[in-house]
Design goal:
Layout lengths: L1 E2 L2 E2 L5 E2 L16 H13 L4 E3 L8 H10 L7 E6 L1 E2 L7 E2 L3 H15 L6 E4 L10 E8 L8 E3 L6 E7 L2 E8 L10 H12 L11 E9 L3 E2 L4 E2 L2 E2 L6 E2 L7 H22 L3 H28 L7 H16 L1 H12 L6
Helix pairs in contact: 1-2, 5-6, 7-8
The protein binds flavin-adenine dinucleotide.
């Protein structure tokens, strides 16, 4: 079988077990024996070794290099990045670009390789977005009267209107992309490809007056209160821009808080204040549910396989093609009721 274009035998070797403890922590108890085990595994036909920066941490890669370097031509080593080990029981995700870069440089050095055969992200870091979007504000009249999601076979794009002469547009891009990589020509060409209706309405172009890479992230601070400090809007929660629910959610919090403060000042009652966080969070989690659902339904991620793509299209067909689907969408998109 093959990993990419590298042939490997069916049985590989999970090299973390040569380390000393159950927690995959620290150097091997018997380093000479650990190296013997690695060499023997290769002799028996396991020509794929699996390791990770976090095994040891780092010591597993060192033992592999000590045992096997200079490497046999057919040995493939796969290592992983993106975890931190503050203590033996912890495997915390850290997918920040600077951490991945230092993992990469460290793995190359420890394994004595110029190029890693296989490098994997150990686990996604929920704090770090997988995808971002290039957002632009353009002096161009909206081509369609409503917000428009472009579920193109490639990556996602979106048009939303600001005024009769201004549009805000989004293009899905990789998380480490830089707005400097997106010339105005490239932006319009990608937007046309992803949004224009074949043989139908085409996007209106105009002067781009603002350009930036916007992170797609989701966050909720619970509870939304600390003593006399009340969090509201973006300070308490962030939703991915796909559902356009940020402003609506901020207004909902403020409405609940305003009533609660008025009740406190006018009647001396703290009943609504005490319920503030709970009331807002109940609605907020429904907003998060909708925003996440819409975001993951219309975007194409690196691991979106053909089956998932069909499910995404089925979700969209249900949403647009059934009365219940349209109602569900409209209720969530225009804004769920604000409780007292
Ligand atoms: C590019 C972009 C496009 C967006 N498009 C949409 C959309 O189409 N639909 C939608 O619903 N949402 C959209 N959002 C999200 C929406 O703008 C926010 O969710 C919303 O503005 C949150 O309101 P807020 O009052 O909580 O925070 P903000 O609007 O950020 O207001 C916070 C204010 O506090 C001020 N401030 C910060 N620190 C201090 C300080 N120390 N002292 C005093 N003042 C301070 C800031 O200057 C700011 O004016 C968009 C966001 C961005 C960035």
């Amino acid at each position: 079988m093959k990993i990419g274009d590298l042939p490997v035998n069916r049985l590989g070797f999970g090299a973390m077990r040569v380390l000393g403890s159950e927690d995959i922590w620290g150097p091997p108890k018997d380093p000479a024996n650990a190296k013997k085990v690695l060499r023997r595994a290769y002799e028996l036909g396991a020509n794929f070794f699996d390791t990770a920066e976090s095994y040891g941490p780092q010591t597993d890669e060192l033992v592999i290099a000590e045992a096997m370097h200079p490497y046999p031509k057919d040995l493939v080593i796969g290592t992983k990045c993106g975890l931190v080990r503050p203590k033996p029981s912890r495997w915390d995700e850290d997918g920040r670009p600077e951490k991945l870069r230092s993992d990469l440089e460290g793995s190359l050095k420890r394994l004595k390789l110029d190029c890693l055969h296989l490098w994997q992200l150990h686990a996604p870091d929920p704090k770090v977005p997988f995808e971002d979007s290039v957002g632009v504000l353009a002096e161009a009249p909206p081509a369609w009267p409503d917000i428009t999601w472009g579920c193109h076979p490639g990556e996602f794009a979106m048009m939303s209107m600001r005024t009769p002469t201004m549009t805000r547009l989004y293009l899905q891009c990789p998380p480490d992309d830089d707005a400097a990589n997106w010339s105005d020509e490239r932006i319009w060409s990608e937007l046309h490809a992803r949004l224009d209706l074949p043989g139908g309405t085409k996007l209106n172009e105009g002067r781009i007056v603002q350009k930036g890479v916007a992170a797609m992230r989701s966050y909720v601070a619970e509870p939304m209160r600390y003593g006399r400090l009340f969090l509201a809007g973006d300070a308490a929660h962030i939703v991915p821009p796909t559902g356009a629910k940020g402003l609506n959610s901020a207004m909902a919090d403020v409405r609940v808080l305003a009533r609660a403060l008025a009740e406190h000042c006018k009647r001396g009652s703290d009943a609504l204040i005490e319920r503030y966080s709970e009331t807002c969070l109940r609605r907020m989690w429904l907003v998060q549910r909708f925003s996440t659902w819409l975001c993951t339904t219309v975007h194409r991620f690196p691991d979106t396989d053909a089956f998932t793509r069909r499910l995404q299209l089925a979700e969209l067909q249900y949403m647009a093609g059934t009365e219940t689907g349209r109602r569900m969408f409209a209720e969530n998109f225009t804004g769920l009721p604000v409780e007292r």
